[in-house]
Write a structure and sequence with these properties.
CATH architecture of the largest domain: 3-Layer(aba) Sandwich
Helix content: 55-70%
CATH superfamily of the largest domain: P-loop containing nucleotide triphosphate hydrolases
InterPro entries: ATPase_dom (IPR011579), P-loop_NTPase (IPR027417), Tscrpt_reg_TrmB_N (IPR002831), WH-like_DNA-bd_sf (IPR036388)
Structural class: alpha/beta
Number of strands: 8
GO molecular function: ATP binding
Largest sheet: 5 strands, parallel
Number of helices: 17
Strand content: 5-15%
Number of domains: 3
Pfam families: ATPase_2, TrmB
Radius of gyration: 23 Å
Shape: globular
Strand order of the largest sheet: 2-3-4-1-5
CATH class of the largest domain: Alpha Beta
Protein name: AAA family ATPase
Length: 390
């Protein structure tokens, strides 16, 4: 269903992403490493899921948002190792892999094989520190051999891959160098919503020894244009058996600005309310639910920075400027909200907000998001934090 709010797995449920899916599939088949990136809720995960939903692939997916904490500058190695081994364990069960792979992991951890198969955290957790970067590489080599033996391709997916930069104790340049050079049946997919941060990570990989000179293809997922957004909503409502007035469609297009995640959420919630007897659905109520989601995300991020009041003031300054402004404009307004703040510091803050995907930059002008949930949620988060720290 088009209005299923969970990431899509089947191509029939994914709207208008044939080009992107084909690019991912061709890259995987040619063993070209790729980065799939774009703003939040634009459908990156769905594109990758559909592309790798193929019996010729063995897929290992590490969702790094599971270790994400905006208040932490670094993660202990054990956070990553636990996630890595859990993902391996899921693949062992899904693809009925075993034998030498289970024995290898169990031997490194110093536990019996059943403890790993059952993923007995009581026994495994104390042993995670023993697992080194070299063991990560060796485990992937074992998986690569299993994939080759079964005439399959191993696909490693690092979802929200920019979080790898915060993991202590593992040299990922060395790990990826080892995979690139020695795992002939393997390809790697990086995804990320913090586009600037992810790009910095990819560049550091491409230009840092020992991974230097390796190529990572970029595939960007864009929001829908107005025509695609309208068609998506009309087809989704037709699937739901719901008739929707033109003015409601136009209102949704204005509010959600082509972001598939918000359009899907709107369509799902609107259909649900109509089916359950609401004669006149209040779209404001649906929008508020989306706004609250962004408000929490943005507030957690701002509170995790070194200068929550300055980040909040920069966001509020953009709002006071009508949604966009230059560094000089924002600095002037921030200095009226707080005591005087140096322009270079505001420049740094604005660019970090861009890199994290909270605001946008075009030429030399910064702007709040155009869609209502992201813009309103971000501004409300700024106001919340400002009330806490001043």
């Amino acid at each position: 269903m088009l209005f299923d709010v969970r990431p899509k797995e089947d191509k029939k449920d994914l709207y208008d992403r044939d080009k992107e899916v084909d690019e991912v599939k061709e890259s995987v088949n040619r063993k070209v490493w790729i980065a799939v990136y774009g703003m939040r809720r634009v459908g990156k995960t769905s594109v990758v899921n559909v592309a790798v939903n193929d019996p010729r692939y063995i897929v290992i997916k590490l969702n790094l948002m599971r270790i994400y904490d905006p208040k932490k500058k670094k993660y202990p190695k054990t956070f990553f190792v636990s996630l890595f081994l859990e993902s391996i364990n899921e693949a062992v069960k899904k693809y009925t892999l075993g034998g030498r792979l289970i024995r290898f992991v169990s031997n490194v951890l110093g536990v019996d094989e059943n403890s790993f198969i059952d993923f007995n955290l009581v026994k495994i957790r104390p042993r995670l520190k023993k697992f080194r970067g070299e063991d990560v590489s060796s485990t992937i080599r074992e998986l690569d051999l299993l994939a080759g033996d079964n005439k399959r391709t191993l696909v490693l997916i690092f979802d929200e891959a920019q979080e790898l930069m915060k993991v202590n104790g593992i040299n990922f340049s060395s790990v990826f160098h080892d995979i690139y050079d020695y795992c002939r049946n393997t390809t790697v997919i990086f995804t990320g919503s913090s586009v600037g941060i992810l790009e910095n990570m990819l560049k550091s990989l491409e230009y840092e020894k020992p991974f230097f000179g390796r190529f990572i293809r970029r595939i960007r997922i864009e929001r829908f244009n107005e025509q695609l957004s309208r068609d998506f909503l009309l087809k989704g409502f037709a699937e739901e058996g719901i008739t929707v007035q033109e003015d409601v469609i136009n209102d949704a297009l204005r509010r959600f600005d082509g972001i598939p995640g918000w359009l899907t959420f709107f369509g799902s919630e609107y259909s649900f309310r109509i089916r359950h007897g609401e004669k006149q659905v209040n779209v404001d109520d649906i929008e508020k639910m989306a706004v609250e989601e962004v408000r929490k995300e943005a507030k957690d991020f701002i509170l995790g920075t070194q200068s929550p009041e300055r980040y909040s003031a920069a966001i509020l300054a953009l709002d006071r400027l009508g949604g966009k402004g230059s560094v000089a404009d924002v600095t002037k307004v921030v200095s009226s909200i707080l005591s005087e703040v140096p322009e270079p510091r505001i420049y740094e803050i604005l660019n970090r907000l861009v890199n994290m995907g909270f605001i946008e930059k075009e030429n030399e002008e910064y702007s709040l998001p155009k869609d209502e949930p992201d813009r309103k949620g971000l501004v409300l988060a700024g106001k919340d934090v400002m009330s806490l720290v001043t």
